Amino acid sequence: MAILLTGGAGFIGSHTSVELIKAGYDVVLVDDFSNSSPEVLNRLKTITGKEIPFFQGSILDKDFLTQVFQENDIEAVIHFAAFKAVGESVAQPLKYYHNNITGTISLLEVMQEQGVKKIVFSSSATVYGMNNVSPLTEDLPTSATNPYGYTKVMMEQILMDLAKADADWSVTLLRYFNPIGAHESGLIGEAPNGIPNNLMPYITQVAVGKLAELSVFGDDYDTADGTGVRDYIHVVDLANGHALALKHNLTEKGTHIFNLGTGNGYSVLDLVKAFEAENKVAVPYVIKERRPGDIATCYADASKAKEVLGWTAQKDLHDMMRDSWKWQSQNPNGYDK
Ligand code: UD1
């Protein structure tokens, strides 16, 4: 029996593959490389010593997916495959709704046809919207402010409705906070296309000399230093959260929702200073206007994952800064040679 990872070559999918293999699972990966590189597969082989079964294609293609299920003994799915850039989703909403929502429905239909009714879903703290106050607990109302966020809210709803309609389904929704860091080998990491939208890859690309300076989006928030506060979590901790959530999903039917965060908040300037101190590299920055749609503070109440899954983040800010830099400095152009 194997676990199918859609979007398995992406940042979180690749790290989760490594931790699942370490935990004794067989994994099968599907990816269309729309936001990832085939080179990831070589790196995964080096790290794990295994040739991981891989199928290139889109989850929108039901014939392709059906074939993957027929050729492999799939027990459960971890569903990462989705577009995730907020700004692009505002500019191209149909692209986001089609890929993320139609893609998820296509996957769920094939799973249902094939009698595989266990799914762990890659959700986001973005579903807590603008109005909830941190620390955020899983029972808070969800909302969104942009098409990307709406796709996450809707995909969660679709999955919950499915589990309500058919008691055989096991649905686990994992709400990630801000994943950063990289595998300790420096062989896999986050490799965004073009100019990064997110803070950590922007910092590392400034540090490596690809970008001139960081723009800090606002220093007048109601936080200790005025810059935005987020719950940064090491991607390997996040990957281990998937391994434990999967174990739970395999035996517990119904819907289960977990935050995957550390419960600690750090500001933009905390990150810049921690990165410079850890790696002895300068990160020049300028203060700019607030970014539309940003909130002051967002961090998890991570107690449910601890109580139910026995999961807590093990790595601290030093580890995140060191490993993010190891990845970027060893791979200045990401997976492109
Ligand atoms: C963003 C998305 C969120 C998505 C998540 C994962 C927005 C509004 N939110 O979260 O929906 O789930 O990424 O992809 O885009 N910052 C700077 N300069 C930069 C980049 C960021 O100062 O160049 C600041 C931001 O204002 C924020 C913090 O850094 O305070 C973190 O930003 P980011 O890494 O983009 O994550 P989120 O906005 O939390």
Mean pLDDT: 97
State the low-pLDDT regions, or none.
none
Number of helices: 11
Give the biggest sheet: 7 strands, parallel
Secondary-structure map with pairings?
Elements: E1 2-6, H1 11-22, E2 26-31, H2 39-48, E3 54-56, H3 62-71, E4 74-79, H4 86-91, H5 93-114, E5 118-124, H6 147-165, E6 170-176, E7 178-180, H7 199-207, E8 214-217, E9 229-230, E10 232-234, H8 235-251, E11 254-260, E12 266-267, H9 268-279, E13 285-288, E14 297-298, H10 303-309, H11 317-330
Parallel strand pairs: 1-2, 1-4, 2-3, 4-5, 5-6, 6-11, 7-10, 8-13, 9-14
Antiparallel strand pairs: 9-12
Helix pairs in contact: 1-2, 1-8, 3-5, 5-6, 7-11, 9-11
The protein binds uridine-diphosphate-N-acetylglucosamine (UD1).
Uridine-diphosphate-N-acetylglucosamine binds at residues 84, 86, 124, 126, 149, 178, 197-199, 202, 214-217, 228, 230, 268, 291, 293-294.
Defining key terms:
337 residues; alpha/beta; 11 helices; 41% helix; binds uridine-diphosphate-N-acetylglucosamine; NAD(P)-bd_dom_sf; EC 5.1.3.2; UDP-glucose 4-epimerase activity; NAD(P)-bd_dom; carbohydrate metabolism
Write a brief structural summary.
One of its GO terms (molecular function) is UDP-glucose 4-epimerase activity. The chain has 337 residues and is α/β, with parallel strands linked by helices.
Could you please describe the fold and organization of this structure?
The chain is of the alpha/beta class and 337 residues long. The radius of gyration is 19 Å and the shape is globular. 41% of the residues lie in helices and 18% in strands. α1 runs parallel beside α2 (39-48), α5 packs parallel to α6 and α9 (268-279) packs across α11 (317-330). α6 (147-165) links the parallel β5 (118-124) and β6 (170-176). It contains eleven helices and 14 strands. The model has no long low-confidence stretch (mean pLDDT 97). It has a seven-stranded parallel β-sheet with strand order 3-2-1-4-5-6-11, with helices on both faces. The structure holds uridine-diphosphate-N-acetylglucosamine (UD1). Uridine-diphosphate-N-acetylglucosamine binds at residues 84, 86, 124, 126, 149, 178, 197-199, 202, 214-217, 228, 230, 268, 291, 293-294.
